[in-house]
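User: Please predict the structure of the protein below. I'd like the answer in structure-token form so I can feed it into my own downstream comparison script.

Assistant: Understood. Taking the following sequence of 125 residues as input:
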Amino acid sequence: MLDLAAGRALGQALLGPPPGDVFACIPSTWVLEAVLEPLAWHAAHGAGSPNTVLNACRDWRYAVAGIWGSQKEGGNWARQQRPDLSVIAQALSARLPGTTLPSHAVLAFKARPHRWRTRALKAFV
């Protein structure tokens, strides 16, 4: 569902109508609920992965600003919101395959997004 929502917003048609005309709009509450699933997967499969942090940043940006983008764009946006969280800058710098971050820093960061998700979901209900 997240791929469809992001593709509808960001996709470029190579042939035919634009993605916004092809794919129906997905209710924001569904999308906000769906952003929790990738973080659960990352918690089980890649606790020290930069992708865990950057996916959370991308989701945070969508929940707060309603803007989809890449992991890098989400990370840059989140770094502007919270320059005190060094794990974001570390994740942006560590995007090479096989690179990991300190698990304790990733776990601490992952705990934060649930607060903004809860507030965002309540705003849409």
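That's the full token string. The chain has a mean pLDDT of 78.
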